[in-house]
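Contributing: when you submit paired examples, paste them exactly as shown. First protein:
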Amino acid sequence: MDRVTSDNPPGAAGPDALRPQLPSPLQELADERFARRGLRLLLKRDDLIHPDLPGNKWRKLAPNLAEAAAAGKGTLLTFGGAYSNHLRATAAAGRLLGFATVGVVRGDELAGRPLNPSLRQCAADGMRLRFVDRATYRRKAEPDVLAALAGEDCFVIPEGGSNAAAARGCAALGQELRGVADVAGVACGTGGTLAGLAAGLAAGQQAIGFPVLKGAFLGEEVLRLQQEAFGGRCGDWSLDERFHGGGYAKRPPELEAFAEDFTARHGLPLERLYVAKMLYGLTTLAGEGAFTPGTTVVAVVTGSP
């Protein structure tokens, strides 16, 4: 594996120069599936924070971008699958703030094939794509693999952008919901958003994470991130692992039917990989009587279609 270096200067302006819409808006929905249980449903429209870095991507990337600039690093190197929203957001951040970007993509079998729309956008934003075999990708955090991929000018951001800095950035999401939510639901990929959301909520508020990947591993990762970011477990949080639909990027018929019905009811198209699964989970929980009457449920919309 060849090393990546760059002579480009780091983005000196910082992410706040992009004028994010913070705090993100709250939108109340009249949904009879919640109303008949005595519940309020609000959407936390993090998808409106910034057109190129929406939702939790902004909250997780912004502190990492600030650290990269402070360290004088000119290149951002990160990891993701072929349809990674994180890769796309990192590429956009590099274009907007003057960083070179490198995306290490899982699956060397993709090299030489036509790029899918997500990777095409990464490339259009100037990201250099590196395809590695899946065995190497699994070892991406090991020092020898990182040393082979990244030059001295690289600031390394983990897959999904989830690290201690990202968790601290997402704590602001919980703080924005203090006094608003009794329960806040969020979709989970790598766990950073849930780790920060729960830490930012006040006592008496609850966060529920809905994993979009199959496999009961995320709880340990959320705990690890909270330990690194805050010194230990923070906030009242739990995971409901019933709504991944078979795994990442899986879109079973029942999920499609729910998303289409939700759009017909409320005029809001749903991003399928994360947001639809989370809202499907919250709606199912409401129907199961999981929330006491009078509860205000906030669904965090982390991305747009």
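Second protein:
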Amino acid sequence: MNNKTAILIFANSAEKEIVSKPFSSKHLYEVLNSQTVKIAKKSGLAYFVYSEHQQVGFSFGERFTNAIQSVFNKGFKQVITVGNDTPHLRTKHLLKTVEKLETNSIVLGPSTDGGFYLMGIKKSVFNKNTYSKLPWQTSSLNRSILKLSALKNIDIYYLEVLTDIDSVSDINMVLNSFKAISTTIKSILLQSIPFVNSITSYQYLALKNFSIHFQFNKGSPLPLHI
């Protein structure tokens, strides 16, 4: 058993997730949370779950890096972080990360939106203050980590690209992928499509009506989470 590496499942409860992701369902995140824990258990590594009840800090970056530091403070030399919104995540990704951390200081599992679904990092290169200031939850996150690592001469290994569910379009990407997902998660996602399509149609009509009434408005585009 690897006693120097721990898994950090940094994921909100299902009740909290649907507040920020109203296009999804509570049942979906209950299943995803359960699946993520099972994957961690199967790896044989120690694991810790940090939901909104254990997280400390105001911004996402503060909460995330505080959680990583907390696991390091337990005596571990390497931490592998994952969320709860990647249906294609498997135990093999965790074990591959352990293997690659032997020769690399950071292992990233990039997501299709420019962020990442997994990060493995050694304590020797982790600085909470530096990492808390990265552009978390943006499409430039991977580029920022790559730039930071290049400046500090830190080796990075990249896993395969997967899709995490942060928007309506991500649901279709997951369903259209050739990668296998559990029948339960697939069924929930398929059931959500009529609801998703109704949201998309409503937002399209709302934007169209807005454009008709304010056709001379040259401001920023409306943020549509689709």
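If you have annotations for the second protein, write them as plain sentences, like these:
The longest strand covers residues 116-122.
The first helix runs from residue 14 to 20.
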